[in-house]
């Protein structure tokens, strides 16, 4: 059985029945047709293979970046297997600005719309014109418009109505020639005379300072989503926990940093086996060497229980957890 350790950024020592690297739409169609149990993988930076997966891991390597111009926009058609950061970097070097805030997010272009990747004030959905897919129910190639993707915070139609039903083959991006710089998020606000290049460099600097490098210490980025709670529940929590941070989403909802909740519950540096809650960024769980799937699950459940008991807030994993037969929930 091939090892999955190098196929996912948490690097658990688990296996699968077989791995298929596919490079074009024809190979992809054949791969999904001939494998009854499969898991679609980009670069495995949001996936943890908790135990041996009894199926085929289909790795999307569809390549290519094509650019066409209209009077006010650059339009990019990008293969799902391209690396996300390389795309951001290539776009910047060519003067196709806008995506700099999303620099250094690990993973593939094809996975970027799945959870609508986001960082430093922007989400990929801000730049998506449409997504090209294969519908696994009827085998047809289809194009979903931006509106049909139903993007939300770490959310999209691909995680809901279309979960497990589609393969993304290409993503079409649209970048305005007159772009607006977004420097509202935390540290970026301190930049003097901001430019796309300065934002790109600063985002890389902050990320390298804050987040563990998965090539050195296995991790999958934020393990949980930041919970969005009702404004009245937030006000109640402010009485018992006056320092609780919160970001107003709209009049009814407030987003609370999960890192703060986990920090308050005393989990920084907590270990179960070789799985550790990161001492500087407690939203990230790390593999300290020989972590096992059951340790990941045990620590994640402990955190979820403690946050629920203390704050009456249910944390929802952001990472995709894969068991023997496919995706599992905690
Ligand atoms: P994978 O883990 O391979 O797949 C993720 C999901 O997408 C799976 O469900 C998979 O089945 C599905 N999928 C993959 N490719 C396709 C396809 N072609 N068609 C259909 N489904 C597909 N995320 C953020 O949003 N913001 C961040 O700031 C951020 N920072 C991170 C930092 C670190 C250190 C790490 C390790 C991760 C971080 N992440 C972040 C999470 C991760 O980078 C993103 O979720 C990324 O989009 C995952 O890409 P991937 O190719 O590795 O996805
Ligand atoms: N905090 C603590 N204690 C800590 C660290 C942080 O209380 O030890 C609190 C602070 O209040 C801080 C807040 O957590 O202000 C937020 O921390 P940070 O700015 O690092 O962002 P985050 O909410 O932890 C989110 C995304 C990241 C993204 C960054 C930057 C989610 C789940 N995570 O992290 O995305 O890179 O913002 O935009 O939304 C990912 O999805 O994998 C990911 C890394």
Account of the protein in words:
The chain has 330 residues and is α+β, with helices and mostly antiparallel strands. It has three domains: 56 residues, Uridine Diphospho-n-acetylenolpyruvylglucosamine Reductase, domain 2, CATH 3.30.43.10; 142 residues, Uridine Diphospho-n-acetylenolpyruvylglucosamine Reductase, domain 3 (2-Layer Sandwich), CATH 3.30.465.10; 113 residues, UDP-N-acetylenolpyruvoylglucosamine reductase, C-terminal domain (Uridine Diphospho-n-acetylenolpyruvylglucosamine Reductase, domain 1). The protein is 23% helix and 28% strand. The chain has seven helices and 20 strands. The strands form six sheets. A five-stranded antiparallel sheet has the order 5-6-11-9-10. It has a four-stranded antiparallel sheet with strand order 12-18-17-16. The protein starts with 15 loop residues before the first strand and ends with a strand. The protein binds flavin-adenine dinucleotide and uridine-diphosphate-2(N-acetylglucosaminyl) butyric acid. Uridine-diphosphate-2(N-acetylglucosaminyl) butyric acid (EPU) binds next to strand 12 and helix 6.
Number of domains: 3
> What series of H and E elements makes up the topology?
EHEEEEEHEEEEHEHEEHEEHEEEHEE
Please, how many helices?
A: 7
Low-confidence stretches: none
- Helix percent reads 10-25%
CATH class of the largest domain: Alpha Beta
Q: How would you sum up the global shape?
A: globular
Q: Gap between N and C termini, in Å?
A: 26 Å
Query: In total, how many beta strands?
Result: 20
What gyration radius follows from the Cα positions, in whole Å? Answer: 20 Å
Strand order of the largest sheet: 5-6-11-9-10
What class would the helix/strand composition place it in? alpha+beta
* Strand percentage: 25-35%
CATH topology of the largest domain: Uridine Diphospho-n-acetylenolpyruvylglucosamine Reductase, domain 3
Largest sheet: 5 strands, antiparallel
CATH architecture of the largest domain: 2-Layer Sandwich
Average residue-wise pLDDT: 97
Bound molecules: flavin-adenine dinucleotide, uridine-diphosphate-2(N-acetylglucosaminyl) butyric acid
